[in-house]
């Protein structure tokens, strides 16, 4: 078979382009740290890479959700602890006032302190996180504790759960139900006021304050003590619920962190290039490219133009 100059040139250029293409691929790996530029470079591997990326996005979303839940539960527990401390103080004050030797002036001083504690509890009940009221149920856009048209305190929250996804088909309520803490319907108002206010903690403390300031009252303070204990029971029950959810979130977050690490490692194994091997390939390809240029310069015969220079 006769080998012409054109055939030699074509063969040389084909080989040169092939080496240049390999160098381009290697250069991409060096600059990005990834093995594959296009899906067709390794279809099966790229399917697994996309699966791992999708899984990692979901895990990151669950991690973010658990962090938000932790913030809400920690603030809820802190607020509930404050409510518990205030009610314990109110209980002590009732016991001090429920004494035959307590003077009218001492009872009025006790009433003033309870009034201040009541104002503090109103602020605690309206605790917010990022502008959302944590004890209002699903009505997070407005204060749960507010006055009604009769001048009594009214609870505007509800018993709705703010459920947040922490895993596939698994949700946890991140809010604490203020209704379980600040509202009770299992007692009767001392003195039977008309109109009867809502049976919440704030109206109860207002009633207690009024009774202590009234020198002619015949109300038994033991009744107020029993109602205080009911509110304390509600606080403790809600704190137990918050604590149980907080423990679950801690375990879930720990598992997600471990799973996130495993998925990231699997993704790296399939997507990341072996940089040591890539550097070696680049050096080899550079040498081959230079050798091809040198060989081509010798193989391709001089043309008439070279002799006319």
Would you kindly provide a written description of the structure presented here, covering whatever features stand out?
The chain has a domain at 54-266: f41 fragment of flagellin, N-terminal domain (Up-down Bundle). It starts with a helix and ends with a helix. The radius of gyration is 38 Å and the shape is rod-shaped. The strands form 3 sheets. It has a two-stranded antiparallel sheet. A two-stranded antiparallel ribbon has the order 3-4. The mean pLDDT is 87. The chain has 8 helices and 6 strands, in the order αααββββββααααα. The protein is mostly helical and 309 residues long. Keywords: Bacterial flagellum, Cell projection, Cilium, Flagellum.
Topology:
Blueprint: H1 5-32, H2 43-97, H3 104-125, E1 128-129, E2 132-133, E3 145-147, E4 153-155, E5 163-167, E6 170-173, H4 179-182, H5 201-213, H6 221-271, H7 275-299, H8 304-308
Antiparallel strand pairs: 1-2, 3-4, 5-6
Helix pairs in contact: 1-7, 2-3, 2-6, 3-5
Q: Taking all residues together, what is the mean pLDDT?
A: 87
Gyration radius, in Å: 38 Å
Question: Biggest sheet, in brief?
Answer: 2 strands, antiparallel
Classified by CATH, the class of the domain at 54-266 is: Mainly Alpha
Amino- and carboxy-terminal Cα gap: 34 Å
CATH fold name of the domain at 54-266, please? f41 fragment of flagellin, N-terminal domain
Summing up helix and strand content along with how strands pair, one would put the structural category as mainly alpha
Named at the architecture level, the CATH assignment of the domain at 54-266 is: Up-down Bundle
């Amino acid at each position: 078979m006769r080998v012409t100059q054109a055939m030699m040139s074509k063969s040389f250029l084909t080989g040169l382009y092939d080496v240049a293409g390999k160098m381009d691929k290697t250069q991409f790996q060096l600059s990005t740290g990834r093995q594959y530029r296009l899906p067709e470079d390794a279809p099966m591997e790229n399917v697994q890479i996309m699966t791992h990326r999708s899984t990692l996005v979901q895990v990151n979303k669950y991690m973010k959700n658990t962090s938000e839940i932790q913030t809400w539960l920690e603030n809820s527990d802190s607020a509930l602890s404050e409510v518990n401390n205030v009610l314990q103080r109110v209980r002590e004050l009732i016991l001090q006032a429920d004494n035959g030797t307590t003077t009218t002036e001492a009872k009025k001083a006790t009433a003033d302190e309870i009034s201040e504690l009541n104002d503090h509890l109103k602020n605690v009940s309206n605790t917010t996180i990022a502008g959302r009221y944590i004890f209002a149920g699903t009505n997070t856009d407005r204060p749960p504790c507010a006055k009604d048209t009769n001048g009594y305190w009214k609870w505007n929250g509800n018993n709705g759960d703010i459920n947040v996804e922490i895993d596939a088909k698994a949700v946890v309520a991140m809010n604490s139900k203020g209704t379980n803490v600040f509202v009770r319907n299992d007692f009767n108002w001392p003195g039977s006021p008309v109109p009867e206010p809502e049976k919440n903690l704030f109206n109860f403390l207002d009633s207690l304050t009024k009774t202590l300031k009234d020198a002619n009252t015949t109300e038994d303070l033991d009744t107020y003590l029993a109602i205080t204990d009911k509110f304390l029971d509600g606080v403790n029950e809600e704190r137990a619920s918050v604590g149980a959810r907080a423990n679950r979130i801690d375990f879930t977050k720990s598992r997600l962190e471990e799973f996130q690490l495993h998925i990231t490692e699997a993704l790296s194994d399939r997507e990341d290039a072996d940089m040591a091997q890539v550097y070696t390939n680049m050096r080899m390809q550079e040498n081959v490219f230079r050798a091809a240029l040198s060989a081509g310069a010798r193989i391709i015969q001089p043309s008439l133009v070279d002799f006319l220079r």
